[in-house]
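Q&A log
Question type: sequence-to-structure
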Amino acid sequence: MAMEEGQGIKIGELVKRTGVTRATVHHYVKEGLLPEPIKTSRNMALYHPECVDRVLLIKGLQEHSRRSLAEVKTLLQNAPEHKGVLRLQNQLEVEASRLRNSPLNPDRSSDFLSVAALAKRTEFTVEDIEEFHSLGLITGKLRRGKPVFGPTDIAVADALAALADVGFDKEHGFKAEQAVIYLEAMRDLLHREVSIFLGQDRPADDPEELLALAEQGIERVTSLMLTLRRKLIREFIDAGPLMLQHDDD
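Response status: OK
Response body:
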């Protein structure tokens, strides 16, 4: 990606034209998704104008196609030239258009479910859904004075239904209020995460950049949380016989 003298753009312009933060641009460069900018002075660096299309493509692939940065990097390595990037952009636009028009798109406003519709979907009673709502497990929003539930709340209700399918239901003594321990634990954990990631002693040009860094850290720690949880579950299961034997003694 050769750049002629005077052709480059400053990071502020790149941020303005793409809608990402400075921290995101720096992260893309660090991960090899963007080429290193050309230093013109101690405090000045210029990016190739084609970086605008590249950043928009990365952003689109992550937001609309749910691809990881590793997957995006592989795609870009297979299309190193600008024409390849534009071709990927066209494919992304077609894919995004298809998703917008798909009846399976969870972000379509028509897919917000009423209490009755959510109850029918999950095979809970209307009273169950209202209880989830009162406990804060699902929140929803009001439309014409009645609550409706979007993709996130629907996913929570689906997860509760999956628990009920394997026997964690009222008939076997599992109450909805018991699931609140996860909500409370996650809320407490999130507050602590924000404190940790915002409290890092890192240079930041502005609060927005610091928030972007915190968001990146919190998102990426999710896989660590899941891995640690699996590890603890395995340790608990493995220690089960020993614990029982100890109790018998």
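Response note: Strands lie at 38-41, 44-46, 113-114, 141-143, 146-149.
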